[in-house]
Design brief:
heterodimer; A: 188 residues; 2 domains; 8 helices; B: 367 residues; alpha+beta
């Protein structure tokens, strides 16, 4: 049994994308989820996907300012995984009404709606990035995701100096924005 | 293009709060007067947030993958997690239920008399069919051997108990639920199960003599539940000629046999069972019949005396209907969950057997 203080610390760690916190939560919960998925028509890959999706949902929840822990971390993860998996089974029409496990779960519908909305936003950004072409895509990725600074970026991509790299990055950014917003216009 | 870039840089400085007061005032005035600029600020602000969230999401995913791979390498999590449960012994019918339709007499640790009823389940010509339960004499012989091997037996065996018969059983739920043939438990007061030199006590959950199936629950503090079972129990029927195999206890150690499905109905057209070409011996009764994907397709049941190599098995869909019956009659068994996924479907036979054998138990019935 984990104390509440401990759980709060873990959530704080997760909200900061701290690997140690992720590892602790992973160790405590992954095998249970994997067995659940495997016993309900799923594969190892399904188990990994569903579990990581639940971790992301918990991360998003932990980041909101109004976040309060109303249940244990494991209860939250089980609830989300169960919900996500049932949904997936329905989609692929494999649902045989014999799903079992995790009796003690909580309502996560609202959280998952928010999570899904975010996933759609991310998918739009990803599509925009993918249509960007190289080296723009890598440049943007290194700058925004990997947080590489301009000096290193210039070196990495072979620009003569940081200013040139910066100008190039802005050019790419302008294109990325256009690609991103174009998806709104086509009713995405 | 250059103007665009300059504008974006300006907007970024504005959004990041990096402007001097006069510059900021000037820029805000422009925003007010030029709707296009105002629009760009709003857009860029929105885009930046999206990018920030997207980047954080990507970084989190990256870490999740790294942690996943690390834990797999360490073996903390894995694709073949299986608690190594060793079976133990002794037995059981300390609890008998109204649903069993078995007349029972219990006094002290014992006695359930079910013998008379068992005869009902035999399909037809009793002489022609030999129950595969191990004969008592053989078992008695074997007991000395087991006695040497298993120290705990003494403490777990009921005093004054006589061996009535024996056979095989296998787990249908990692929590310790075993399925076996009802006829193995004929005349028994309780039963113990063995696996890997360990003995476990069990209690009777349910017995259905018409289906010739019974469910036991391992009720022993030495038993470690399995997180998941390696095999699935399928509802699908098997095809003629399909390759099948079984594990069981015709003697005091586990024995492997393979064969194929030879007829879709059992003895004298019995639709509950199917006929297989596989050399089963007494003691194989109650053992799992598996297909090459590692899915349980039946429970080995009886053997025709005359034709060697002809064996019958109860098809696995009756395991499902048996469990449904149990759940209807007693809600405390709602949590029984039959395994629907075979984690050994892509492994070779030797490794399949290695994983399955931990879940197959020798059963000894006592009165």
């Amino acid at each position: 049994m984990k104390s509440e203080v401990n759980e709060q610390a873990l959530l704080k760690g997760l909200a900061e994308n701290d690997k140690k916190a992720i590892e602790v939560i992973y160790k405590d919960n992954f095998n249970i989820i994997q067995n659940y998925i495997l016993n309900n028509n799923g594969s190892y890959d399904d188990a990994r996907d569903i579990f990581q999706e639940a971790m992301i949902a918990l991360y998003e929840k932990a980041q909101t300012e109004s976040f309060v822990l109303t249940c244990k971390i494991n209860t939250y993860i089980y609830s989300v995984c169960k919900r996500l998996w049932l949904k997936r089974l329905h989609q692929i029409d494999k649902y045989h009404n014999q799903i079992d496990g995790f009796e003690e779960t909580i309502q996560v519908e609202e959280d998952l709606e928010i999570h899904e909305k975010r996933n759609m936003d991310f998918a739009m950004m990803e599509r925009a990035m993918n249509s960007l072409g190289e080296p723009c895509r890598s440049l943007i990725e290194s700058f925004y995701i990997k947080k590489v600074n301009m000096q290193d970026l210039a070196k990495q991509f072979g620009y003569t100096n940081a200013d040139n790299a910066k100008t190039q990055k802005y050019k790419c950014l302008v294109r990325l924005k256009k690609l991103f917003f174009a998806q709104y216009n086509i009713g995405e | 293009m250059m103007d665009d870039i300059q504008l974006i840089q300006t907007i970024e400085r504005y959004l990041e709060g990096k402007m001097q007061p006069e510059e900021k005032a000037f820029f805000e005035l422009q925003r007010k007067n030029v709707p296009e600029i105002d629009q760009m600020v709003v857009e860029h602000s929105m885009f930046s947030h999206q990018m920030e969230d997207f980047a954080a999401n990507q970084r989190l995913k990256h870490n999740l993958h790294e942690v996943h791979n690390k834990l797999i390498q360490e073996g903390t999590i894995g694709e073949s997690i299986q608690q190594n449960t060793k079976a133990k012994i002794v037995l059981l019918w300390n609890k008998y239920r109204k649903v069993t339709a078995i007349a029972a007499v219990v006094s002290g640790a014992m006695a359930l008399a079910i013998s008379g009823l068992v005869s009902f389940f035999a399909p037809t010509n009793k002489q022609a069919i030999q129950q595969l339960g191990q004969e008592v004499e053989k078992l008695k012989q074997g007991q000395r051997y087991q006695g040497n091997k298993i120290n705990e037996v003494v403490s777990k065996m009921p005093v004054n108990a006589d061996v009535r018969g024996g056979g095989t059983g296998f787990l249908i739920d990692g929590k310790g639920y075993l399925i076996t043939n009802a006829h193995i438990l004929k005349d028994a007061a309780f039963a113990n199960v063995y696996n890997n030199g360990k003995e476990y006590k069990t209690k009777l959950v349910y017995i259905d003599v018409t289906k010739d199936l019974a469910v036991l629950k391992i009720d022993d503090k030495d038993f470690t539940p399995f997180k998941s079972l390696p095999y699935a129990i399928t509802k699908h029927s098997i095809e003629l000629g399909e390759e099948i195999f079984t594990l069981g206890y015709p003697k005091n150690e586990i024995v492997y046999n393979a064969g194929y499905l030879s007829a879709k109905t059992g003895y004298a057209g019995d639709t509950l069972s199917c006929q297989i070409q596989l050399s089963a011996n007494p003691g194989n009764s109650g053992g799992p019949l598996l297909n090459k994907k590692g899915e349980v397709v039946g429970v080995i049941s009886t053997k025709e005396r005359q034709a060697d190599g002809v064996t019958f098995a109860i098809t696995s869909k009756y395991i499902y209907s048996l469990i449904d019956d149990i759940k209807k009659l007693d809600t405390s068994y709602q949590r029984i969950k039959l395994p629907a996924y075979s984690s050994i479907k892509n492994t070779d036979r030797v490794n399949q057997i290695k994983q399955i054998e931990d879940c197959v138990y020798m059963i000894k019935a006592y009165n």
